[in-house]
Amino acid sequence: MVKRLVVVGGDAAGGSAASQARKRDPGLDVVMFERGRATSYSACGIPYWIGGAVDSEAQLIARTPEQHRAAGIDVRMRTEVVGVDLDRRVVHWRELDGDGQGREPFDDLVLATGSVPMRPPVPGIDAEGVHGVQVLDDGVALREQLSREGVRRVVVVGGGYIGLEIAEACRVRGLDVTVVDLSATPIGTFDPDVGALIADAVRREGIRLVLSDPVTAIEVDRTGRARAVLTRSGLELPADVVVLGLGVRPDVRLAREAGVPLGTSGGIAVDARMRTEAEGVWAAGDCVESRHRLSGQRVVVALGTHANKQGRVAGINIGGGYATFPGVIGTAITKICSLEAARTGLSSEEAELAGYSFVTAAVESTTKAGYFPGAQPIRVKMIAERRSGRLLGAQVIGDAGSAKRIDALAICIWNEMTVDEVLSLDLSYAPPFSPVWDPVLIAARKAFEAVEEDIRGLL
Amino acid sequence: MVKRLVVVGGDAAGGSAASQARKRDPGLDVVMFERGRATSYSACGIPYWIGGAVDSEAQLIARTPEQHRAAGIDVRMRTEVVGVDLDRRVVHWRELDGDGQGREPFDDLVLATGSVPMRPPVPGIDAEGVHGVQVLDDGVALREQLSREGVRRVVVVGGGYIGLEIAEACRVRGLDVTVVDLSATPIGTFDPDVGALIADAVRREGIRLVLSDPVTAIEVDRTGRARAVLTRSGLELPADVVVLGLGVRPDVRLAREAGVPLGTSGGIAVDARMRTEAEGVWAAGDCVESRHRLSGQRVVVALGTHANKQGRVAGINIGGGYATFPGVIGTAITKICSLEAARTGLSSEEAELAGYSFVTAAVESTTKAGYFPGAQPIRVKMIAERRSGRLLGAQVIGDAGSAKRIDALAICIWNEMTVDEVLSLDLSYAPPFSPVWDPVLIAARKAFEAVEEDIRGLL
Predict the structure, then answer these.
(1) What is the pLDDT of residue A337?
(2) Chain A nearest-CA residue for B343
(3) A427 to chain B: which residues are within 8 Å by CB?
(4) pLDDT 10s digits, B43-56
(5) Does residue B149 contact residue B235 with C-beta atoms inside 8 Å?
(6) What is the per-residue pLDDT across A121-145, written as a single tens digit (0 to 9) for each?
(7) DSSP element (H, E) containing B240
(8) Where is A70: in which H helix or E strand?
(9) A134-178 residue pLDDT tens
(10) Is A229:A155 a contact under the CB 8 Å cutoff?
């Protein structure tokens, strides 16, 4: 008898799982349900399409439904899975553009249900004119709104990665943009000193930044449309369009209702092979939790790169192979106007919460030899465990050519290197690429000195 | 009694050793001898000064003699150490611009004598108009020659890093440039497929590249000046200036004459703390050999970044601290016209010589998400050990934003990661910085598939 795999969700994780499983086991029947109008697209690319750096929506799509079908996957677009019956081993679905509904049996099931934007519980949050930016269809809707005549003022609620990327996109479109956030610095996963530099860069682009000020309500006009954002300090920020940039939470409704266990973080609990605790049920992408290799905690990190890897791992295992997803260390990167910023491992606050005792060190250097044309400022900050000197976290911020250096530091952390091991690394050097002491190595030197000084203080 | 440190050579290694030793032990007497006119300068920057990207010679100098003196180091410029007497513990010196000579006692001695350009043993090689590019004074002399009226044709002998960098600099100056090399592709430390791409880039800049053709003689005119380079195939390449870009060999004359043991590679033998086998004698920089962490062999790698680190290590140890230099893995990077190229670990040929059995994999990707403006082509090649899948080497080539990614791979190799471990790494992702699968990860995937396929072939 032919085995059947049902995949719920056709973006990064679902699409990868379906493709890999089918590739490994060409006899497998694969049915993939997708609620939206696109499969396997780059959600991370939406801000750049809105800002105009990317010409067309189609460019964001890595694999269309037709391409998936050509690979032997039965793709059901605009079809929502509304229930999972684990005992009968069927999913219930309904068409979003028609009256069709039905059930689909499965042997294996992949839940790749993604995430939903966080919505603060304030009055007016569900009003017309308040936009999340989660799936491609959200991006389409927001872009349409921003193009309407008379739209001039945008308020972005939340100054995280997506919030700032959308704010920049709106600014590029010539709009009047305000970002409001309850924290003292934007992107709270950076240390405050780095966050302050991000704030400066955002303001330099002419974006208004309202910090340490939670949103208390969205004011709605007589037609039921958002017209202003109100804050605790009493600000009234007029808005033709409001965008939610508060991050996302895992969409676990289906899993919860079906009885698939969730983890401590609220995401679907999976093992390293992406198996849930329910027999034959797998999960991958924004809806699952991952092991943080440094804190030991389970965390939900909604990022396309993890979704792709997790989907691939699930698909390989379903197809009869063996693969694991070994966890995350919190690497992230973003471009904020002309500034690049990246982080990996634990921030100072996260290290504190995880129970580490640590020192920090930061250095200013240049992306190329100081005398080389185009050398840009770069700042590298390191967080190192006291006594052992183990590298726990790093943050890089600077102009063009800065941020991607975070990968080197991510790999140091992954391999549990100490800062004095880092400073001896054989990294590449030539004047067009770095000073003779690479900024990463200079930071490691300074962090090592901080560890040593701290030890002398303990004696 | 005050201890005295004598340092022979005042560039990267010597300058670092002197500075660190003095910093750690402020009571130490430090005398540093330098034959040339500059201390602590960037030899790697010379091509960019010749090409005009760097305005002035002064910009290449990280620390002047005056700055060293202000740090308490007794710097003796234009003074050559002509002999070391290990029994009497003195060095003999003579001034190059005067008649002065004398002896200087030492307790500790650092040999940082650098390297000398390789000169093929062919007729005419010592003629006027044949230039090495080793120390800053060589750069000054070459620049002067290139600026002379009537100089139009330059022949560079040797297509390694320095050879190509100088060729490009001459081309930027509007000169007619030919590079001649005995290998089939330039920069022999890259695999031939990567070398072929480098050759294409060089030719696209209008540089003539003569390959697989050894130089047999430098033809000299009646005044004793070089006028053409002759090759085995019978070419006669007219030259107003000839530049030697054949690489360097360690300058070990002083060490050898003094009885300081050399290693198997021809460099001065040192341990991880940069001690030679002679009591109280240390060595660092281009004149020493290092342990290659993959081949296990001793190798001489003349590179400013190693010289700085080794000098620092020697200085810390001399000053009463403890530090080690843990070896090299052959990381190197270069910009050839608009192309960036980098390598780390072993090339296919080196892996073969070191006795490894391996597979290779190469992928083409982009430096940013494919749809993102400014995405550039990048090619990543990996060399992985058969069966184990251990990453042995990697080469990256592409347009702007490609080559510095080699650092990530260098750290993978340093930590003895396998390619399947590499493909799970938590590397940074956002559309302005990479596709959702970073090129490094795609290459690791493909290398892992090659390892797996090879294992299936063995069964």
Answers:
(1) 83
(2) A428
(3) 305, 331, 407, 410-411
(4) 999 999 999 999 99
(5) no
(6) 999 999 999 999 888 999 999 999 9
(7) none
(8) helix A65-70
(9) 889 999 999 999 999 999 999 999 999 999 999 999 999 999 999
(10) yes
> Which residue type does A128 have?
E
**What DSSP designation does B11 have?**
S
Q: How many contacts does A have with B, using Cβ atoms within 8 A?
A: 189
Q: Which of B305, B404, B428 sits opposite A436 (nearest CB)?
A: B305
Q: Tell me if B345 sits within 8 A of B358, measured CB to CB.
A: no
CB–CB contact A406 B425 (8 Å): no
Chain-chain contact of B429 with A303 (C-beta, under 8 angstroms): yes
Q: Which residues contact A113 (CB under 8 A, 6 or more apart)?
A: A8, A9, A250, A251, A252, A253, A254, A255, A285, A287
Q: What tokens appear for A352 in the block?
A: 């504190």
Q: Cα–Cα distance between B328 and B330 in angstroms, integer?
A: 6
Distance of CA B51 to the CA centre of its chain: 19
User: Contact, B335 vs B199, CB < 8 A?
Assistant: no
Tokens representing B191?
């695999």
**Closest to A385 measured CA to CA, from A414, A412, A360, A350:** A360
Q: CB–CB of B335/B401 below 8 Å?
A: no
Distance CA A316, CA A436 (A): 44
Give the nearest chain B residue to A438 (CA atoms). B305
**Paired tokens of B193:** 């497929």
Model pLDDT, residue A1: 75
CA distance A142 to chain B (A): 20
B157-180 residues labelled b (16+ CB within 10 A) or e (exposed): bbbbbbbbbbbbbbbbbebbbbbb
Q: Which of B168, B407, B132 is nearest to B242 (CA)?
A: B132
A412 among known catalytic residues:
no
From chain B, the residues in CB contact with A424 under 8 A are 309, 324-326
User: Are the beta carbons of A155 and A231 closer than 8 angstroms?
Assistant: no
pLDDT at A458: 80
Q: What distance in Å separates residue B333's CA from the closest CA in chain A?
A: 6
Distance from CA of A457 to the nearest CA of B (A): 17
ipTM: 0.96
- Cα separation, B60 vs B443, in Å, equals 37
8 Å CB contact between A114 and A35? no
**Closest residue to B411, CB basis, from A372, A408, A429:** A408
Grade residue B337 by pLDDT with cuts at 50, 70 and 90.
confident
Q: What is the pLDDT of residues A352-391, one digit of tens each?
A: 999 999 999 999 999 999 999 999 999 999 999 999 999 9
**For residue B331, which residues of chain A lie inside 8 Å, CB to CB?**
426-428
Q: Say whether pLDDT at B274 is over 90.
A: yes
Residue B338 pLDDT greater than 90, yes or no: no
**Which of A301, A415, A428, A445 to mutate: most B Cβ within 10 Å?**
A428
What domains does chain A contain, in order, with CATH numbers? Answer: 4-116+249-318 (3.50.50.60), 119-246 (3.50.50.60), 332-458 (3.50.50.60)
Distance of alpha carbon A265 from alpha carbon A261, whole angstroms: 12
